[in-house]
Recover the amino acids of this structure.
């Protein structure tokens, strides 16, 4: 089969980690008999520098002509919040999510066996295992509500960010969560702030309705502050965690850290049609950009999700994940996951080792 992939290299470490991932995709193509065509898409701070806006005209169209989108990372201090909105990389990220209708953001956080030591939690907590899937609503809520900034007479400047959710938006993300749970350990935890927010009370009532429909799936409601606490107290209790946009943003960073490094975790953002978008959950790490120090694993695992969900090629996805696990089991470490005294390799070498593991595995078949 032939697949067309839109590549958004982005800013900071984005280009380096995408480069390594593309080499792995091509290696999988050689081994499994697929061909990939890449369409370069300019988005983020680099687009601001090149054409004056972070989300150039036609970006969504270019992506829509592809089967999937792979994104490295966008952002950096050079394009900070003092810039006009159309020059800020984050604006572009939100726009592409919205324009491609990517309302469901899947962020798996699993403790990889070789890295159990990297988990910052107590040993007895880590030993219980961590394998959860954060399902974050991605195109609604406070991220996309009306914003305002105005001068008051007596209180200086005042701003508002509106958080809005409709039943329809909640139901479709809820269904995703329950469907994913059916493929896993059949438990859904819905996270909200129903003791304070009206949007959360609606969220909870829609989720409870769905829980009756998906009676084979265990279900619970948890308040967001409690969830933040439970994630470090006993993360093994969670299977699928579904929540609104901003809570999901915050909790998914927390979930990533308990697995050892934010440099390991992939994500998939999907809507009801193609293409879906795959990206590491970490940012552009401008402080180490261009130094061959970034961990490419989160992007490589994002490509594995792309094979699994967009191309429906499970064996290829398994091969990539196994190649990553073998590299880690063999002791290869980038700086972010190395413990004191362990030797460290750069982005390129880590990519190469993983690539070669895909080769080894297939020879064994
Ligand atoms: C993420 C990021 C983005 C978000 C930023 C860069 C806009 O933190 O993907 O989690 O908040 O969604
Ligand atoms: Mg975030």
């Amino acid at each position: 089969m032939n697949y067309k992939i839109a590549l958004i290299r982005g800013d900071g470490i984005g280009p380096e980690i995408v480069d390594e991932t593309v080499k792995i995709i091509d290696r999988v193509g050689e081994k499994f008999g697929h061909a990939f065509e890449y369409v370069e898409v300019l988005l983020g701070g680099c687009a601001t520098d090149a054409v004056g806006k972070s989300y150039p005209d036609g970006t969504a169209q270019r992506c829509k002509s592809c089967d999937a989108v792979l994104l490295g990372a966008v952002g950096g201090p050079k394009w900070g919040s003092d810039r006009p909105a159309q020059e800020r990389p984050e604006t572009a990220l939100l726009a592409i999510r919205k324009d491609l209708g990517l309302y469901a953001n899947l962020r798996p956080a699993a403790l990889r066996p070789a890295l159990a030591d990297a988990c910052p939690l107590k040993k007895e907590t880590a030993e219980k295992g961590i394998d959860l899937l954060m399902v974050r609503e991605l195109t609604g809520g406070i991220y996309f509500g009306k914003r305002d900034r105005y001068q008051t007479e007596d209180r200086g400047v005042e701003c508002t960010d509106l958080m809005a959710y409709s039943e329809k938006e909640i139901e479709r993300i809820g269904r995703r969560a329950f469907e994913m749970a059916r493929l896993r350990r059949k438990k859904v935890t819905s996270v909200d702030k129903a003791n304070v927010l009206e949007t959360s009370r609606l969220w909870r009532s829609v989720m409870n309705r769905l829980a009756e429909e998906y009676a084979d799936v265990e279900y619970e409601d948890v308040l967001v502050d409690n969830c933040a606490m439970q994630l470090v107290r006993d993360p093994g209790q969670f299977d699928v965690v579904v929540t609104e946009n901003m809570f999901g943003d915050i909790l998914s960073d927390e979930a990533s850290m308990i697995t050892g490094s934010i440099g390991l975790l992939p994500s998939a953002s999907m809507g009801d049609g193609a293409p879906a978008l795959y990206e590491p959950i970490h940012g552009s790490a401008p402080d180490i950009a261009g130094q061959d120090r970034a961990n490419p694993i989160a992007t490589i695992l994002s490509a594995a999700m792309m094979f699994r969900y967009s191309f429906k090629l499970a064996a290829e996805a398994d091969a990539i994940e196994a190649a990553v696990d073998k590299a880690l089991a063999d002791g290869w470490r980038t700086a972010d996951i190395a413990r004191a005294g362990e030797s460290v390799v750069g982005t390129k070498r880590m990519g190469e080792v993983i690539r070669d593991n895909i080769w080894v595995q297939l020879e064994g078949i």
About this structure: The domain at 120-258 is CATH 3.40.718.10 (Isopropylmalate Dehydrogenase). The chain has two domains: 1-105+265-365, 120-258. The chain has a mean pLDDT of 95.
